[in-house]
Amino acid sequence: MDTGPKDLFSAQASEYARFRPAYPEALFRFLFDHCPAFERAWDCATGNGQIALQLAKRFAHVDATDISARQLQHAQRHPRIHYTLGQAETPDFPDAVFDLITVGQAAHWFNLERFYAQVKRLLRPRGLLALVGYAQLHTTPAVAPLIKMLYSDILGPYWDPERHLVETAYQTLPFPFEEISLPPLHIEYAWARAQLLGYLSSWSAVQRYAQQTGQSPFSAEWLEQLTAAWPGEESCTVQFPVFGRVGYCR
């Protein structure tokens, strides 16, 4: 039964805006190289507007929608971006108006049958759809087991089932479009421990754990182990592999 869209990120909208990884320039170069034109784009489930801001560098007009008003409050403004509340499956746009439609780290929450019907209605001939995301972070050998412990052992029951689609890099999603392959891409940062914790705090499962247990999943023991593995203000490299499904509307 379709119970409507899940809004899992309003509660931590400020953390999401501060700590969520930004997609690499190489991703947008790839998309722009395959776009038929640059008149109008739709960034669906825009969140804090990360992708929309990149699209505004090339497109004359960018529509950016999200179901969370709090997320949109934290989105960065740009004269060529128009932010509005809206669901992926019921957009209020005229037919054949977009050259590119993007979805960042959100397609797994959609009713894809209904969303794809809208995509086919809204894209111009040879318009491009890009469903992109990033996988679990990679970091130092000392810290990696602690991230795995948090993700699987502590938070495992608190992840939504849709998270599995991210874990399989969207390869199990239906994709009824003329697909083109993304090149290997990744996001890379040099983070201090506080930045890592800020990012982890933005996870939906962290919020659900706290709501259901009344406690933080970052136990004193786990934090002590993290401090030992990542001492002081030392910076460590973290990487997020980027994945996606990209294709043309016939």
Folded structure, characterized:
This protein is α/β, with parallel strands linked by helices and 250 residues long. The chain has a single domain (13-248), classed as Rossmann fold. Helix content is 34%, strand content 23%. The protein has ten helices and eight strands. Strands 1, 2, 3, 4, 5, 6, 7 and 8 form an eight-stranded mixed beta sheet that branches. The chain starts with 12 loop residues before the first helix and ends with a strand.
Topology record:
Blueprint: H1 13-19, H2 25-34, E1 40-44, H3 50-55, E2 61-66, H4 69-73, E3 81-85, E4 98-104, H5 112-122, E5 123-134, H6 144-154, H7 163-167, E6 178-180, E7 185-191, H8 193-201, H9 204-213, H10 220-229, E8 236-248
Parallel strand pairs: 1-2, 1-4, 2-3, 4-5
Antiparallel strand pairs: 5-8, 6-8, 7-8
Helix pairs in contact: 1-8
CATH top level assignment: Alpha Beta
Gap from first CA to last CA: 30 Å
Number of strands: 8
Please describe the biggest sheet, giving its number of strands, its sense, and whether it closes into a barrel. Answer: 8 strands, mixed
Question: Which features would summarize this protein structure in a list?
Answer:
Rossmann fold, 8-stranded mixed sheet, 23% strand
Summarize the structure.
By secondary structure, this protein is α/β, with parallel strands linked by helices. The protein has a single domain (13-248), classed as Rossmann fold, CATH 3.40.50.
